[in-house]
Amino acid sequence: MSQSRAIDYENASDAVRAVYDEIKTLRKVDRVNNFWTHIAVDEKMLRRIWNNVKEVMAPGALDPLVKELIYIAVSVTNNCRYCIASHRAGAIRAGMTEEQFNELMAVVALANETNRLAIGYNIPIDPQFEQ
């Protein structure tokens, strides 16, 4: 499969540049990473995803490190190398240690294994686990 094309700042529309500027300001970076420059081929999607990221990944009931750890776990399960790398860097910035990463990988591996067993055996849900 071929790679998508990136929209660099110089060739971006005003709407795309506005999102890029927000990303650079909020994240305190000089360049927008590849994820954003590649989804910028669709201005509406770029804006929608950026708005979702700002809202969901902001500090809330879960602190930023926990959110990054969850993101890594889902990315590992979905086999998204880009997202693993990006959010591992974010988790490190948020204070993740190598020990925490290793433990996270053990939990992800265990959850995937036991999920497959529960699915494969079609195990009924215990009444005490029902909401």
UniProtKB/TrEMBL annotation:
Under the heading InterPro entries, the entry gives:
AhpD-like, AhpD_core, CMD-like
Annotated coiled-coil positions are none
Which top-level group of life is the source organism from? Bacteria
Start and end of every Carboxymuconolactone decarboxylase-like domain?
A: 47-116
Record protein name field: Carboxymuconolactone decarboxylase family protein
- Could you tell me which species this protein originates from? Daeguia caeni
